[in-house]
Amino acid sequence: MKLTCLSSGSGYQFPPCHILEDVCGFRILLDCPLDLSALSVFSPVPPDNDFVSDGKASYDSARDCFDKEQEIQKRQKIETPLHGKDLIHDELWYKTVKNLHLWDPSSIDVVLISSVMGMLGLPFLTRAEGFSAKIYATDAAARLARLMMEDLIAMNMEYQYFYGPRESGGPHWMRWEELELLRPELKKVVVGKDGTELGGWLPLYSSADVMDCMRKVQTLKYAETACYNGTLVLQPFSSGSEIGSCNWTIDGPKRNIAWLSCSIFASAHAMNFDYGALRGRDLVLYSDKQFLPLMDEVQSNDASSTIPSNDLSSLSRYCSADKDDWKELTESLLSTDEILEKEKMDFICSCILQSVQAGGSVVIPYNRLGILLQLLEMIPVLLESLAADVPIYVISSMAAELLAFTNVIPEWASKPRQEKMFSGEPMFSHVDLVNKRKLHVFSAIHSPELLTTWQEPCIIFAPHWSLRLGPVVHLLRRWSGDENSLLILEDGVDPDIALLPFKPLEMKVLQCSFLPERRLPKVDCMLKLLQPKILVLPDDLKEKLDFSNPSLDSFSVLYYTEGETLSLPSSPEGTLDLEIASVLAERFAWQNLGRQDVMYTRLEGELVMEQGKFRLLPGITSADSHPSKNKE
Amino acid sequence: MGIECLVLGAGQEIGKSCVVVTINGKRIMFDCGMHLGHSDEERYPDFSLINGSLDCVVITHFHLDHIGALPYFTEVIGYSGPIYMTYPTKALAPLMLVDFLRISVGRGVEEKFTADDITACMKKVTPIDLKQNIQVGKDLQIRAYYAGHVLGAAMVYAKVGDASMVYTGDYNMTPDRHLGAAQIDPLELDLVITESTYATTVRDSKHASERKFLKAVHDCVVAGGKVLIPTFALGRAQELFILLEDYWERMNLKVPIYFSSGLTRQANIYYKTLMSWTNQKIKDTIALQNAFNFKHVVSFDRSQINAPGSCVLFASPGMLSGGLSLEVFKQWAPSKVNLVMLPGHCVAGTIGHKLASGKLTKLYADNNSQIEIRCKNVNLSFSAHTDSKGIMDLLKFLSPKHVMLVHGEKPRMSILKKKIESGMGIKCFDPPNGGVVKIPSAVHVKAQTTDSFAKSCQSPNFSLSRCSTSGAVLSTDLTSPLMVSEERVSEAILFMDRSKARGVHKEELELIGSGEGKSQVFLYGHCFPIRSDNLTKATGRLGLSGNRSWLKVLALELSHLFPQTDVHNMGDFLQVGSFQLSVCPNQSCTRRSSDVPGDHATTCTYLCCSWCMEDEKLALAIISSVRNSL
């Protein structure tokens, strides 16, 4: 079996992408994400305000005339700080996973999806000629992914209107001479570190592609079993990071694999991380890189996330405890995440309040559904306590559907949310807010209803977090000069490049990581619980995890590197399990072998592969059904 | 071992469904219902018949005859193990139970459990989703499938070891306005316990009765009449709401549709959240408007009973057995333009039953004055149970080894039983309450086998032969039928060594010393690849080359690794006890393993080994250490 890491990803927005080869003879693609942070090389607005009036035409002619001059100018500008003009002014293209296009789509047998984000690049793959793999995703992730894709298409449409029909022969910025002119920071994003990633850029898929893609996906519930070709038994288990996101187990006759994606021990809205179900696998592929780098860095880094030190010591104490302390261990794993996340959210809310009180507006380009839901609950409470009449808007083509969807999925929600449902309340309070007219949901920024209810200051949730698409672009242009306004950015975008088109920027920017990082002691604990024989980790964790700990040396550790293929040793036992139907077993004619305790018999029947197991069943052909017998 | 079923309720009757099944030693209780037709001891299942402890309780849906006794069982009897039910069942069951308790108290009947018991009991319930594999303890696995009967109704699959079974609960094989049809995977089952409410009835299509219903309601409201629909708050009411709401939209009707009970309002909230348990058509509406967000359906106020104008009213309880529905009936019955719609079967003895059979012309009101019944009435059967065709379809689909019938009327059940036994050749049981059914279960013999066994068994290996009719061995009779025999599996041999069974391919073995008097010894074999560049490097260090030098290196290596054994280098092969190792030149070696090491299959050298059974441990140790070190 071989593992190729196509991309080690960057955080929640761009999960890692792997290919597992020869898993009982099959090739499995793990996730198919889209690097949306790369959109930052484009400029959503023409570089200067003068261009707004006559748009593309003047820009194009300007470009033709001053091509040469520009070239010289640009080269001279290398030393000057990056400017909004340096960005690419063209229709948006999207960056798919590096080198995925080099794999023959028809050679992939199975695609496993771990999260909504891991699915956004899938329509590119499913429309490829010869693609015939079976795609498995959780039901909720697939439905959310469809909303995200549709939203992306709707937002992208705006640019298509602006730039007109596509140029033939690829966009101008992809020509080598143009690429040479790009500033190094941007060039790195466009062609990658080693200059090989240009082939991954594509114009966005269409609605029809998405429809076609969703038709090919087989959706599962948590802990539901899917059996591929009788051989591989696949099961998704909740990973806690988002509604519908999951870790997978892949069980074949010779292999038991658990693939751990980004997982959170205790989530405020999604079902908790079900790590108990991942135990007892030979091989654990741990593709999650979301670690807090080093313990001491944490405390200096972010005042809002200081960890009570006794908490950690209790954790390590549990780590050294016996295996029997499963329950205690479990509780200790769950407790700390909650505290951290709560503090972080409180801090964000207090910043929002400050801005609003100063008369500024707040823009939150949401990305994670969980954050949207949590803030939608926390902010109105705070506003009420201040008796401030500040409207909250959610603007997105899919907002109404998305919010409605969150209230009909108790099966995917966390325990406290489920309890709310059982006691007859809506799981998320945004329904009430809409009814009380405190929250307004609009499909577009130009919808007439929005214009009639518009009121400033306000708090707006709108896509897209790359700041290159959607209503956010217009809102930032409106408020970028207002020093009282606030923009809340998630981790995963480079603020230097992301904010370029909106400079000069007066408004405040708060960038924070919403994802509770897993601290290393926790990972140690978890790995100890899972007890794999072989553990496969990304190589960046080499220094961070210490396997000299005597409790952790029971398994061998392998490290994978992006872009390289790692062969994984086969399981040491050379034998397979065989189940023989009792009907057959009764018919066996045992013969003794001279030596007293050994017997043997000839087998008959039919060998089938079912649910990842070899089974010998009574076959159709046997000597008894001899056709000549009928004639006797 | 095997499966043993103890029927505590719904044996040859309808009511208090409860079956305790022991599968390979694990004991599960399916449903825990009460009998609404009894108010004495017979009301609850006789839990004293259970001997031993239960591993879990699974409830299929929220009807009282399936869940009514649960609070009594957990809070009074004291069962404290896990309880499983689907999300909608967990959400809606307390409504049903609390409402039941309220009515009982209203009638002055004392029940065996209290409202607090209900709350405490529901806290212990673990909600499950469809198709989720739930592991109960180490050995028992349960899984719920969609049953369609009411929102959240489930059929339950249970498996312990090799034995598995399905308990259907109540199910419906035809979709209705808000629910889909029952759905289950093809499973290999030893037993199916199925309901048999309509053991002999074959129902007409639902469309006809829906049309009839809508026409009657339409005619009445257009003529200015009032429509009374006595029904329970949950289940049927929501189905008819959807039907009417849809019709009202299409026909652009403005007549209000009322529901009387607060329970219905609460239930509607749950139905809204639990959308994913309805049918696909309703699920698709989420994008536009939740189908349970009714526009025309509004709640009713008692003062509106005699308000002028037409309306439609859903009043509980069903069958006009009392409460608001009867009160309204008394008010509305005297008018010719009004309509009473009975959407289901009415139990004998109720006013609904009398009305439906056309025997009711007069009724005494509270003040002893007589009320003439002049209103129209229509009785329609919107049953949510499967009919006999559906039962047979499900059994044919699952084709289990045994069937057990519960939840039906005795004479009809025995007709169905005969039909199943003669029609499908499946053994069928219909035990009464307190009865016990024991059936054997499938057992698989566990063995171990090798790669080449699996490989050779999966590739076709036909042999053709002509068999003669005359019996002569060398017949040239070309008219004799050509016989095809499939030999892939019969080339394999199963070994039994003490308690361990092992299947191998015949070519993996060598028979040594097959002469008389001598003992016969079978050899196991394995041929595996190692990276030759590693080996060459190692030999290079010793300044040697060639196949024989490789063996020298291996011999050195092995004597390092296994100091307590003697490694003999015999030139062409190495010998350790009965274990032999040589470089394998044969590309199609039958012992060859299928794993290709690492990345470059081209630079591999295969090492072929053989050993006697008694040296198996040593042999596997040597092989794995050779593989790991090179």
Automatic annotation (TrEMBL), chain A:
Please verify whether the record's keywords include Nucleus. yes
InterPro entries in UniProt: Beta_Casp, Integrator_9su, RibonucZ/Hydroxyglut_hydro
What are the recorded Gene Ontology BP terms? snRNA 3'-end processing
UniProt keywords, alphabetically = Cytoplasm, Nucleus
Name of the protein this chain belongs to:
Beta-Casp domain-containing protein
PANTHER family found in the cross-reference section: INTEGRATOR COMPLEX SUBUNIT 9 (PTHR46094)
Q: Give the UniProt entry's GO cellular component terms.
A: cytoplasm; integrator complex
Q: Which Gene3D superfamilies match?
A: 3.40.50.10890, Ribonuclease Z/Hydroxyacylglutathione hydrolase-like
Q: Which organism is it from?
A: Linum trigynum
Question: Pfam families this protein is in?
Answer: Beta-Casp (PF10996)
Please classify the protein's predominant subcellular localization into one broad category.
cytoplasm
Q: Which residues form the Beta-Casp domain?
A: 372-499
Q: Which domain of life is it from?
A: Eukaryota
Where found, per UniProt?
A: Cytoplasm; Nucleus
Automatic annotation (TrEMBL), chain B:
Q: Which SUPFAM superfamilies match?
A: Metallo-hydrolase/oxidoreductase
Give residue ranges for domain Metallo-beta-lactamase. Answer: 15-225
| Domain of life the protein comes from | Eukaryota
Biological process (GO), any one: snRNA processing
Describe the family membership recorded for this protein in Swiss-Prot or TrEMBL. Belongs to the metallo-beta-lactamase superfamily. RNA-metabolizing metallo-beta-lactamase-like family. INTS11 subfamily.
Gene Ontology CC annotations of this record: nucleus
Q: Cite the Beta-Casp domain residue spans from the record.
A: 237-355
SMART domains per record: Beta-Casp (SM01027), Lactamase_B (SM00849)
Name the Gene3D superfamilies for this protein: 3.40.50.10890, Ribonuclease Z/Hydroxyacylglutathione hydrolase-like (3.60.15.10)
Question: What are the record keywords, sorted?
Answer: Hydrolase, Nucleus
Q: Name one GO molecular function term.
A: RNA endonuclease activity
Organism, per UniProt? Answer: Linum trigynum
Lineage of source species: Eukaryota, Viridiplantae, Streptophyta, Embryophyta, Tracheophyta
Q: What is this protein called?
A: Integrator complex subunit 11
- Localisation: Nucleus
Regions that span the bilayer: none
